[in-house]
Structures are given as structure tokens and as C-alpha cells.
Amino acid sequence: MVLREHGLQSARVVRVAEEHVEKFKKKLSARAKKTKEDRVRYLLKALDDLEWELSPERLEDYILELYEESPHRAAHVAKALKLFIKTVLRDKELYYSFKVPRTQESLVAEALTLEEVVEVAKKIRHRGAQAYFILLAETGLRPGELLSLPLPSLDLGERVIRVGKVSETKRSYVTFLHESTARYLEEKYFPFREEFVDRVRPLLSRLNVNLEAWESRLFPFKDYELRREIYRAMDRALGRRFRLYDLRAFFSTYMTKNGVSPLVVNVLQGRMPPREFRILQKHYLPISLDDLREIYERNAPCVSKYL
Hints:
hpI Integrase, Chain A; 2 domains; three-stranded antiparallel beta sheet; 16 helices; disordered N terminus
């Protein structure tokens, strides 16, 4: 069962080391060679994606993100993680925080209203977590995708986010910012971010950290730190918690209720494979960047204007 079905309130994070992976390989020594290689390969992919830090909340969202891209890949990664956690980490809270998805399973998101999302945003006391939450709600991007977004992907002047992630199954195109959100980022978030980077840089310089990569991220914070602040705000505002991934469904539902074509929503949320997008743009939806911006500004949820 998933985390919220257990009613668990966790801000724990478990840091995984190379020796844990080596131990996992030994545990798999009796398995067939291909099985062993596949389990290790999927585990390493997950650890790289999660920066070698596991928390119950992030694991649940991570599997959901993978499932949207490829149900089969999500199932393989979940099985590898389950086996690793069970045999090496032996951590029940991590183990029960996510499920191995069935390939034909329909994943249901919690229905959220704009009023509920705004109330949570108002209660977030950490400026970085608040900005992260606002952008999740107003763009519908995947949590992991937004967290790893490079700073140059954001153009405040044009109020555009160019995600630019292309895989064999997904093409993240562009999404936009409301005027009030661009103003919030410029006046409130970026001064906070600059102060944080200046304060933490000397500490990280003593460690084995790629400072250039860290400083180039739009959100140079730990995932579990942002989630902790957001979940605390949910408790204060609503008395309950929902997954950050549910904000992706909130965005698409809000847009479609406002009459936006699901095809346009798929473009904005990067759900469309590159080949399909090219065909759509050429034959069915000859739409420009300005057209997309106008649709977004007229119909997308706006949280920042209430803060």
C-alpha cells in the first residue's frame, strides 16, 4: 500500500552508498545472469534519478512519473527498488511507501480545487518550497522534472520555461508563466535563492560536490527538504496530505474544464512523443508559441496572484 494509505507522516531520507549496491549484487549472485544485470541496471537508474537519497514520499511520486512515461519500465524499476530495500536496507517504511504498478493499472489522482492549492501555497514558509509548489501547480510539470530544471531553461523576460527533455516516448515542449508568477520569482524567490547559494556554497566546496551543476539548477535544494516544508503546509492548511504528482492532474483537469483541447494540454505537459508532435503540428494543430502562450494565460491556474 502507498504511504498515505498507511497514514504515515515522514520526512525521513535514507542515503544510499556504493557499498549498499555491492551488497545487493552479492544478494543476487544466485540469480540468472540476465536477471541480476537487469535488477542492478534498473536500481542504478533509480538511484541516479533520486540522487542516491530515498524518502517514502519521493519514491511514490518517482514511480508515478516513470509509470506515465512507460508502465513496463516503472514496474521493472519498482521491482528492483523493492528487492533492494527488502534485502539490503531492510526499511519497512521505504518498502511500503510505493507499489509495483500493474501495466494496465489506472492511477487515480486526488481531485484538488484551486482554493485548496492556494491555501497550501499560503502556508508554505520556505520560499524555495513555495516557489516549487507554485510552479508545479501552474505548469503541471513532473516533480522530478521541475526539480532538476537548469536555470537557463527559465526565461523571465519572455515568461517561458523550455524544458527541452526529449526521450523515445516523451517530448517536453514549453510552458509559460503568468505575469504575477514571473514577478513573484523575480522579487521574492530569486533573492532568497541567491542568499541561499551564497551561504551554502562554502560548505559544499569542502565536499565532493559538482558546484557548477548544483548552482545551475533552478531549485538548488534537496528534494526531501522541499517536500517536508510543503507537507507541513498541507497539514496546516487542509489537515491532510496529497502527492505532489497530483498537481500534474490538477493542472490538466483545470485546463480541460476551461475548454482547452487535451492535445494542447499534452503539448504543454510534454506527454507527446516527438514523432506524434511533428505530425500533429504539421497536419492537425498548426499552433505557434504565441498561440500557446495566449491559451495558457487565459486558462491555466494561477496561484501566485493570491499570495
